[in-house]
Hints:
It is globular and about 45 Å long. The protein contains 10 helices and 11 strands. By secondary structure, the chain is an alpha/beta fold. Bound molecules: zinc ion. Zinc ion binds at residues 15, 17, 88, 92, 128.
Amino acid sequence: xxxxxxxxxxxxxxxxxxxxxxxxxxxxxxxxxxxxxxxxxxxxxxxxxxxxxxxxxxxxxxxxxxxxxxxxxxxxxxxxxxxxxxxxxxxxxxxxxxxxxxxxxxxxxxxxxxxxxxxxxxxxxxxxxxxxxxxxxxxxxxxxxxxxxxxxxxxxxxxxxxxxxxxxxxxxxxxxxxxxxxxxxxxxxxxxxxxxxxxxxxxxxxxxxxxxxxxxxxxxxxxxxxxxxxxxxxxxxxxxxxxxxxxxxxxxxxxxxxxxxxxxxxxxxxxxxxxxxxxxxxxxxxxx
Length: 288
Ligand SMILES: [Zn+2]
């Protein structure tokens, strides 16, 4: 029997970064040291491309400018396979640690680098670690001024490092004095007045798959809305070198790596997915 949610097409997204770019490792890995690590991002992203091809799924890939500069062939392949290439910034810096000027320089360099290699206009941005929070809302103005069509950086949850708990749970227009921007938030379910994340990251790796399946099904069935799923290439790489970090960070980042690839295959069978651009029918803005 065809599931009742079959007609809802959800959004698949991948933040294309290497295992040593993770924000929680910032105090053990300096930016100057990135080139000294063995890079695994190209190989891991290729594996994701294969899985998506097998399932006939298109995704949005938020690529770091740093990655686009070093692996242009990878970015071209992503675009050639019909996926959307968007921006994850250049140097994976948390927005609330930057000045507006520093952010503008970073996001402008990343957009130029990615457009240069992909040959397509970049429409969307996702901040490293969802770091658009109350104190960094100025970043939205910068994105509008830099010609972006949408942002996908505001998570409507309570979290130790990110989130604006009472912001809308589904795509909406963010109105700012300098203009408007479409916001495509990370997905949650609302239970007992609290928003709980259901679509990606550590929750997908570490909680039973049934939680993700139930949550996405519930949003599709009851709210009739797509979810925005997110993952990283390093999440399907159990052999990645381990960083010397504390126990809590180790648990958060390394638990469940060996089962995530198989889980993704199930997810791609259980639900329909496409890119942000396709699901929301977006085109480059005339101002860009
Ligand atoms: Zn990231």
